[in-house]
Amino acid sequence: MECLVIDGGYGLHGEIKVQGSKNGALPVLAASVLGGRSVIHNCPRLTDTDSSLEILRMLGCGAVRNGNTVTVDADCVPRCDIPPELMRRMRSSVIFLGAVLARCGRAIVSAPGGCELGPRPIDLHLSAMRKLGAEITEKDGLVCCESRGRLKGAEIVLPFPSVGATENIIIAASTAKGRTTLVGAAKEPEITELADFINAKGGRISGAGSDVLVIDGVEAAGNCEHTCIPDRIAAATFIAAAAATGSELTLSDVCPEHIAAVISVFEKAGCRFETKGGKLTVAAPERLKAVRFLQTAPYPAFPTDAQAVTAAALATADGVSVISETIFGSRFRYLRELKRMGANAESEGGIAVIRGVDRLRGAEMHCTDLRGGAALVVAALGAEGRSEIRSLRHIDRGYESFEAALAALGAKIYRNVKNETADTIDVFREASGV
Ligand code: UD1
User: Which of 311, 335, 421, 429 has CA 20 to 30 A from 259's CA?
Assistant: First the structure.
């Protein structure tokens, strides 16, 4: 089985360009269904973005990738149903619901997939679509949303600032008749990115980045060119990798203000940060200090997506760290794998207690989910000896050329591919120095 082989204990050094944001690109790709031609730069090459392109093509749009630039032509969208097989590939497939409904007046989808993080309902998405005038029926696991003509602007209050529901509402309301006011919106940078993208297509969305959004519906979406924002979770992952290996790394193409909460936690752990010329340098101490209490919460607080990689770095910190996960209660499954490396970590409910050990030892592990998988890589980079990490499909959903990026920073890492020949392994080994 394909695996990442990591010989841990080597420092990282140098500069890394942070990839374009996965969580920004996916809603932008979905919103491109609204109409016109969208040229999207800095779109990360990931299996999740590939799945979005497949959905777009299946709907009848043109969707072409050239390196990190994707062009979507949505002059004609003949289909309005997304097969369950495509829906299941990722959670973000649900964002196509608002886009297809707005564009076609009808959308047929099934429950979305994505990481197993506990229950991930879509009730907030559906009740908002109803408010915008859609009729919704559910049968045999399929959700059918229908509007007679254009959707209608409405006042919507979200009881929780759901990122996905906010995205669906923004997209669906952008071509609705009249004004939509959304109170209790999510404030993540990816929401602002989505609003900027739709506005570039002629939309009229204001308030993005605050918890009240005003969306004045326009008749149709036009052409636009867009550049995806830097991926704040990939940035957090490289910071965690530097922290776990006692290294100094420079990140380029990064927005430090998007990861202020992450920077603050790693500062508490003893890392030093410097911003210069649009780049962010992190310098980690030989051994981190424990972080007494860390809590995930909606932006601008500490992101749930950075929780696992941070825990991995804290596994060898001096002292006891306590992490409270408030977004997805069962997001600690990766701890079971970290324990194979000798981590002293327990979780109950949404709380994890991590007692820092002197060092982790290389082990064989399986990724439990996307960010949990990245956490295993972070831990293995700092561990003594060799680790083998399997179930890489999770990591491939969210990190562009992860092992190549880390190898370029000095990590001893390579991907042992299926049906490998001795020659292929040697080439990889030579390239990565393992
Ligand atoms: C969430 C994260 C996002 C992250 C993504 C992938 C937050 C607030 N959201 O976004 O940062 O990038 O996972 O890991 O940090 N909920 C409902 N009903 C709904 C929708 C959501 O009850 O219809 C609940 C969820 O169960 C969860 C919470 O709201 O407890 C957050 O959900 P939401 O923000 O919608 O999740 P994602 O959009 O997947």
Answer: 335
